[in-house]
Amino acid sequence: MSKLTKREKILINLLIIVVVLYASLNFLILPAFNNLNDIKTQKENASISKFEMQSKINNLEAMQNNTIKTQNEIKVLLDGFDLMAPNEQVERKISDILLANNFTINKLTINDADKAFPQLENGDATKEYIKKKYVISEIYGSVNNLTNIMDYVNNLKSIRISYLNLEGNFNDLNQNINISIEFEVFMYENIAS
Amino acid sequence: MPKGFKSKSINFIEAYKQKDNKFIYSKSFKSVVLLLSLVFVLSGVYLYIHLQTVDQKKELKAINNYINDTNNINLYDQALFSENQLTAVLFAQKNNLLSIKNIMDGDAIFGKDDFKSFFDCAANVIIIKNFEYRNTTAAITFVAQTMDVTQIPSYIERLKATNLFSSIEYNGYEKKDDLNYSFNLTCYIKEVNTNE
Is the ipTM beyond the 0.85 threshold? Predict the structure, then answer.
């Protein structure tokens, strides 16, 4: 067997170096590096989750205080509002106002469509907190008594006059005339009072 | 030095160096050193990465311990619930109620005194007919009659003087019969919020 030439020896050495380099990089260093990167990514994600969790937990007390404060504000704002009621109760309420001011009620109609206020675009019923009903009534009585109703309703938080029509001639405020009157009645629902 | 001895310098260090140098500078030794250096460097890199990995794993474990802690999970759930309750529900409820309050506060239709002032303006020379009010326009519209058309401007002046209206629209009159002239008026009530 002839001796290896100088060139062959160099080539064998180079081959060994290349094999060692390739094997080390491919089977040791790169997998370890990839593993490190994976763990770094996991840690970053976990850190974000932890930060979010920590900040929410730190704000919990302030949030709860704010919740109580807002609930109290809502209670104050709800004062004067009625819980969403069926038509017969709404009718009773408006009739009582009209009768207490000596009006004869010829007709009273309640608009069935309970409109959310403000109107929601997506129509999510659970997020409709204020609804309004329209009560349209034809009554007979004096303008003087009508102004008493106006004064009374102006002081209410949940009812307003949205339309008024006084028919015929009237210069005497005590003269009885036919009046069409429309009330907007605001009521709440889905709110814990 | 005695005569007859042949002088020969003995230098072990030099000999050793020569020998070593021969070995050191031999090609196979160079190859082995190169290979070992390569292995050493690669091992160093691997060790560094491994230590980093161990370190990162420790930190990850500490973070995961915090995240998976039952107490922390409960507090976090409470915080999420409170936040959702506050932002999605309570604020919406409060804003709805505030918007109603603002509308109602700014939507004072005529009171008793205002109505009396309005009718007093007629002063028995103007007869008011078919009075109509709509809160969407905050306008009062009515037909009025008079026997004396010269009274109309002063009537409008009296209406303006009540300070109840932001503007009054008048577009002339028409003779209805031998005695009466008819005219339409639209009066816009002041400071009425119609944002709905």
Answer: no
